Amino acid sequence: MNYLSQNAKRKLTLLTAGLISIGYVSAQNVTQQQEPFKGQIGKTLGDSKEAWTTPVKAPKGAPNVVWIILDDVGFGASSTFGGIIKTPVFDTLASQGLRYTNFHTAGICAPTRAALLTGRNHHYVHMGGFAHTAMSAGFPGWDGRIPSDKGTVAEILRENGYSTFAAGKYGLTPDEDATDAGPFDRWPLGKGFDHFFGFLGSQTDQYKPDLVEDNQHVTPDGRHLEEQITDKAIGYLTKHRKVAPDKPFFLYYAPAATHAPHQVATEWSDQYKGQFDGGWDEFREKVFARQKKLGIIPANAVLPARNPNVTAWNKLPADEKKLYARFMEVYAGYLTYADHEVGRLVDYLKTSHQLDNTLIFVIIGDNGASKEGTLNGDIDRQVFLQSSTQEENIKHNLEKIGEIGAPEGTQANYPLGWAQAANTPFKYWKQDANSEGGTRNPLIVYYPKTIKDGGSIRTQYGHVNDILPTTLEFLGIKNPEYIRGIKQDTLQGTSLVYSFDNSAAPSKHTTQYYYIFGSRSIYKDGWKAEVYHHPDFNDLTKQTTYTAPAGGNNFDNDVWELYDLRTDFNERVNVAAKYPEKLNELKALFDDQAKKNNIYPLIDWEDVLKGRIHKNYKAPVEAGN
Question: Which residues form the signal peptide (predicted)?
Fold first, then answer.
């Protein structure tokens, strides 16, 4: 029987969170459900029967689990999936594990991470946009607050005897809660982690991060953020092994790399000096050939044309080529450095004799490569916004070319041409939920004890919400009926365990929607219908001056496209006119999924940028005003 009102429950939650934050109650004691007393109470000890709570234990022999997710890495960037940016640690893990080439994310960071941690669709867990004030709205799919009946992987595994740690980017805490005053129920410790070290927002400076440890902000030590989070993760695991060597752990390791700002020591970026002087067109051709050779893409695949908004490299002036090549050198060094830091973590597991009993998932990017660096690259956001022309921005960037990637004074992000190159062999990029370029990311699964087909490729369709069900099935753990007394909703993802030892197994994840601020698509059994609903692309040169697409933001005016991914995996041939019945079928399916997953009302970037979706948000000042 429910004796507490909703208001009383809220007060109890806030009180508990406050006690946790000041150290009177441990997060673990609050999280774990107390067993009912099974003894007998008499008037004296002699006529009473004592009983003790049975400690929660993981299944016997349960492996450790590590989830690694990088940020803003395109499908064709890493050497592991055909790219020419060196990622030797990922290469090694993949050579002993499985590479999934048909795996998908939500298309942008917070939605992807919400789906990953909960095993459910992003709108279904209220993360249709972000937890940021400006990008959330007062509707179930959009308020940026993951409900308690949709428990996270950390909550589930801790209920099943695991220690749980997180290091790096979280990105799911509402802005209003992200101060040292809390409340803390939507911080990582409030969502099941024993310890957390990293940042709560979407991005941060790599040398001066907005840094949090457990339930309070802390002062960074001046080193690169990736080094700090790796040290902290290893520290957590070292202490855990010392005091509880037989207890398995779960580690969520989420580097800021390679999200802007691109900042890395020159010892990493200078490794790539001169290697991108041939430009983004040459890069795409090289990567495409490597992907075919490695079997990452079909042998008969065709490379899509360069996006019309990207200038051909051979038509650029020499000074722009020099500038843009340096942007990419820094990005490449940043990715290789991130791989190196993952290597430090893997080396620790190996030297501590835990690697052989650790199930590792590596998701190389939470979406496609970022288009947010604009057409000409971005070094200083404020100067960029105040520049009245592209020429002024290029001139400023050239003057500061030596500072790209430096720890002081710059917030670099590469130009659009490199985003398309890093997304080879797909069209478009981050934020474009309609496109494989926005939503298809590499996945590595590593566990040599069970995976005997090391180095092989899997083409089964997968989505980020599949990782939690996969983990639970592999561990032999069921999604709990209750967490902290709250009845849990069902999972929506599909376990990939069936494909671990069967490369020919048909895909079990057969339907999946995508929606990010207007761009949208629906996948069903190899077919995909999609809409590129965006403002005029030329307005990307000024991110604050978007205009509405043709027809305003009237979604009824959008033109749907149709692709048969079974024969056209990278969406080159629109067959909407050839198969109108299939298109209508998929449009109806999208509507059905929208209703089930809280996608409605449809919200797009114009609604965000003009401050229509949140009463406390003020639209940005127009550039130059």
Answer: 1-27
